[in-house]
Automatic annotation (TrEMBL):
<feature type="transmembrane region" description="Helical">
    <location>
        <begin position="61"/>
        <end position="91"/>
    </location>
</feature>
<dbReference type="Pfam" id="PF00528">
    <property type="entry name" value="BPD_transp_1"/>
</dbReference>
<keyword id="KW-1003">Cell membrane</keyword>
<feature type="transmembrane region" description="Helical">
    <location>
        <begin position="186"/>
        <end position="212"/>
    </location>
</feature>
<dbReference type="InterPro" id="IPR000515">
    <property type="entry name" value="MetI-like"/>
</dbReference>
<keyword id="KW-0997">Cell inner membrane</keyword>
<protein>
    <submittedName>
        <fullName>ABC transporter permease subunit</fullName>
    </submittedName>
</protein>
<keyword id="KW-0813">Transport</keyword>
<comment type="similarity">
    <text>Belongs to the binding-protein-dependent transport system permease family.</text>
</comment>
<feature type="transmembrane region" description="Helical">
    <location>
        <begin position="98"/>
        <end position="120"/>
    </location>
</feature>
<feature type="transmembrane region" description="Helical">
    <location>
        <begin position="232"/>
        <end position="255"/>
    </location>
</feature>
<feature type="domain" description="ABC transmembrane type-1">
    <location>
        <begin position="62"/>
        <end position="252"/>
    </location>
</feature>
<feature type="transmembrane region" description="Helical">
    <location>
        <begin position="126"/>
        <end position="148"/>
    </location>
</feature>
<dbReference type="InterPro" id="IPR035906">
    <property type="entry name" value="MetI-like_sf"/>
</dbReference>
<keyword id="KW-1133">Transmembrane helix</keyword>
<keyword id="KW-0812">Transmembrane</keyword>
<keyword id="KW-0472">Membrane</keyword>
Amino acid sequence: MKKRSWVHPLLMVLLMIYLLSPLAATLLYSLAGEWQTTVLPEYWTLHWFADMLQDPRFTGALLRTLLVCTVTVVLSMLVMLPTIFIVTVYFPRFERLLNALVLLPYAIPPVVAAVGLIKIYSSGPIVISGTVWILIGGYFVSILPYMYQGIRNSLRTIHAVELLDAAELLGASKIQAFRHVVFPNILPGIMVSMLLSFSVLFGEFVLANLLVGGHFPTIQIYLYQRLSESGHLASAIAITYFIVVLLVSGVLLKLSKWFFRAPRLG
């Protein structure tokens, strides 16, 4: 009988400790009243969370961040899904070109991209420098690789071309084949891409700070502004920030499972 190896569980435990230790320390610091020379805080308090929640700037920054991230992710999905589908199914010779274009954000540092966007959109026919629109545009470009990889891999996994051919042979039009056969099968991949993109944008700071800064303070800028006031308060904001991302991820995953259980014709 083969003995169970203890190496893999041990590595998993060590990895979890390594990943969760900073979060646990931040949580402890956010709940600490005084913590100077003792191993654990001298007393516990929710004062920092109450201070944060009573600040109207926090609520405004959180809502603005949710709005910008949601609009950007939905807009990116609406543009990238038909683009990737058409190129993959009908124009596969352009796939390399599309792949090279969407991977460009990986090669351009956010600071360089922000400076270029400010230079271009500070004058000329489209003046949107310092507005939320330039932030949405910058975010849109930055998540292209995540949207592209998830959707393209899903299309390849289900063999979209063969599925379409089979659906059309059975009498379905191209739109019906996409709506009832292809789309339900790639929906989990789309949801994962959207979730990953949303999480990346929710933690992004460089573009938000350089492109809009105090004109449109997001939660990242709010956290940066209050970081110098109190480490306890900054820890409370970071924990709340993490909980919001966790809740949004849970809702998206639930939605994905609900859609995945929906009746399909494929």
